[in-house]
Write a structure and sequence with these properties.
Length: 115
Amino acid sequence: VQLVESGGGLVQPGGSLRLSCAASGFTFSSYAMSWYRQSPGKERELVATITSAGGSTNYADSVKGRFTISRDNAKNTVYLQMNSLRPEDTAVYYCNTFLWPHNYWGQGTQVTVSS
């Protein structure tokens, strides 16, 4: 299993970024996918989850209405569209999937929101 994130960077408050996670090594269309984030000194937190077919999504209260998770099963890729970014969104963002009994993570991509 390999998860490779991309799309992070430096953005001003109020700006937008789209993160991508390219997956390989498993049947992508059969598994839910999630995005997590971790800021310095804080625990890793769940940001958003999408079901295998993309029919259902869930978000942390802190990002509802600003972030959108989506997936393209033909491309084995999951996305996180982040709008109206705030300084408190600054973190390393990780792609995640759970294939029993293992939890798999990407290497992470840094998102910095600052003027």
